[in-house]
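Dear Dr. H.,

I hope your travels went smoothly. While you were away I took the liberty of generating a structure for the chain from your last submission, since the lab meeting agenda had it listed for discussion. I wanted you to have the full record in hand beforehand rather than looking at slides cold. The sequence, exactly as received, is reproduced here:
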Amino acid sequence: MAKPMDYASAGVDIDLEGSAVASLIASLGRSVRPAGTPGAPVDLPGGFGGLIEFGDSLLALATDGVGSKLQIASLLNQWGGVGIDCMAMNVNDLLCVGAEPIAFVDYVAVPKPDPATHAALGASLAEACRLARVTLAGGETASLPGIVTELDLSGTALGYVKKGEAITGENLQAGDVLIGLPSSGIHSNGYSLVRRIIEHSNFDYTSEAPFDADSLGREILRFVGRENQKITLGEIFLNPTRIYCDPVVDLIHHAQKNNDFSIDDLRAICHVTGGGLSNLLRLHDNLGWHISDPLPVHPEFSWLQEIGGVETREMYRTFNMGIGIIIAVSADKAEAICSWLQEKMAGVEIIGNVLENGHKVTHAIAGVEFTHY
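The corresponding predicted structure, in token form, is as follows:
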């Protein structure tokens, strides 16, 4: 590559998106629901999910889509994982406020309906509901010729948390410990850069993966008929986003009911999505974060970096790099919480600490540092 590739040159400028979202939020008016009444907003740092009043509980809402990963699914006509992607991008955000997801609605937009594709989407969404332990409460399918040229899939998840038990990051302290839960792959962020790298390479999505696809803590969803053949790049890139309801919801329930650690020991939860590790900065305005012992990087990330000539900091700014969820916990209960999680999920490890000085993320790799989301 004559020039290193980055996310912005692939068409997605994270900083510009951040400015646009800030402008949108600044233009919004205050809620018409009076404080203390059902539907009134609850102030929440981080913005992973929105909280509103609802009697003795708080309702949590999150909405998101699969993004340009769908273009690879469309090209290969492989839809088995995209419903899981859509669910994961939403329910994982709800977990970040300590909410238990309970229901989901989807939105499908197509240029022209196709029964076979819709059946595959339905099967994928049904599996997603099983993994997330939620009810599919409804949805909408829209045929929009002239507006959309390919299938688009998004959704909204609903969850709840008892008042006083939301996990917001407000109780974070310097010295708290970071526990990393492994990702299943690229998840659903950074695909504009993935597609650009493939377009400028000598590979396509049907090519056999030119690296060992085995990675601790994950399975690759195989395309039907290819189960006994070598894994392709398409299967690697379409591997669905991991849904973390199991074990995170169970962790929260355990903390609420047992004595080995409490809900107060769970300080903050971060879903590592677009923006990579800079998502940690959303959880507190002053504290810093250091990743001293990162989880193993999946081989597809190293391969994409090499053939795309992507700088290391850009990789950690764009992709999850092997870490899907980060849970900040009290230092004195960190080993107990990590051990509990390790019994539920392979690859969970302590990866770093919360720091007192400086609102920034630093990393064991020199130069991987972020001062804004």
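Two observations you may find useful: The CA atoms of residues 225 and 231 lie 12 Å apart. The chain has a mean pLDDT of 92.

With kind regards,
E. W.
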